[in-house]
Amino acid sequence: MAVYTDVAADELAEFLSQYDLGELLSYKGIAEGVENSNFLLHTSAGSFILTLYEKRVARGDLPFFLALMTHLASKGVNCPLPVKGRDGEALRELAGRPAAIINFLEGIWPRKPNVTQCAGVGQALAKMHLAGLNFAMSRANALSVSGWRPLFEAAAARADEVQPGLRVFLSDELDYLESGVWPKHLPEGVIHADLFPDNVFFLGDRLSGLIDFTFACNDMLAYDVAICLNAWCFEPDHAFNVTKARAFLNAYGRERRLSEAEQDTLPLLARGAAIRFLLTRLVDWLNVPPGALVKPKDPLEYVRKLRFHQSVNSVRDYGLSTSGLVV
Description:
Blueprint lengths: L8 H8 L7 E6 L7 E7 L2 E7 L9 H13 L17 E3 L2 E7 L11 H17 L13 H11 L3 H4 L3 H16 L6 E4 L8 E4 L2 E5 L6 E4 H12 L9 H14 L4 H27 L13 H11 L17
Antiparallel strand pairs: 1-2, 2-3, 3-5, 4-5, 6-9, 7-8
Helix pairs in contact: 3-7, 3-8, 4-6, 4-9, 7-9, 9-10
C-alpha cells in the first residue's frame, strides 16, 4: 500500500455519496507498500479501505481481483470483501483512477514473524489454494519467467549503481531460468503471488486476514509456496530460518500435500520467486515518482536470498525430507 494520487475531501465525499456508508468522518493515506494509492476511511458506518489502482495494475484485471476476494470470502477465507455501491457495482473511478472500497480487517502485520505465525500463513495459503480451485475466472501471471527479461532490461543500465556487478549477476540468472529448466506441468490454480508479512494480519498469533490481491493470478501453486519461503523464512540479517520454513511447509502440507514433483522443484521455484521480487524492487528503487508518499523496498535483500537458493540442492535444505511433509 502507498499513496501516489491524492484525493481532496470534497471529491471523496462526493464519491462516497454513491454508497450507503454514512458520513465521512476522517481519512488518511497509508504509506506502506509500492503499488497503489490507499486510504483508511472512517465513516459513520465504520472503517474501510479505499484503493486507487495505479498504472502497474491493468484496469481490465480489476474485475478478477474483486470477484476473487468475494469468492474466497464465500469459501471461508478471511480476506477483504469489496463494498458495492447503490448501483450494485464495486468498481468505479476517483481522481482519474479506477477505485474500489473494501471492508476493514482487524489486526496488524508482523514485523518479525515468529514460528507460530509462519505456520498460520502456511495453513491459510493452502486453504486459499483449495478454495480457489473452482473459481471461474482466470488471469495469466504477467510476472512469471517470460516477464522477467523486460524488467531486467528496464533496470539494467543502472543496476550497477545499486551494487557493482549486479547487472551481470541478474543476466546470468535469467539465462539459466530461461534455458528450459522452469517447470511446466505442476498443479495450478489461483495464487496470491504477493503474500508478504505486510499482506497478512494477525491478532496476537492468530491469523485474522489475507489482504492485497492485486497480483493474484493463475500459476503453479508451489510457486506461491516458494514466494512465501522468501517472504517469511529469512531473518533480518538475511539468514535462512529452517525452523520457520519447516513450520510453514508442514502447516501447508496438513491442508494440501505437496506432490513429489512440487517438492523436487521447490528450490528452482524459490530462485524464480527471488529474482522476480529482486527485479520489481530494483525497478521501483530506480523509479520512485517525485513527491510520492512511498517507501521503496531494498532490492539487495533479494540478492542475498537468491544466492542462498542457488546453493540449495533439495527440499531437505528447507528443513524437510520428502517423508517429512505432514499429510
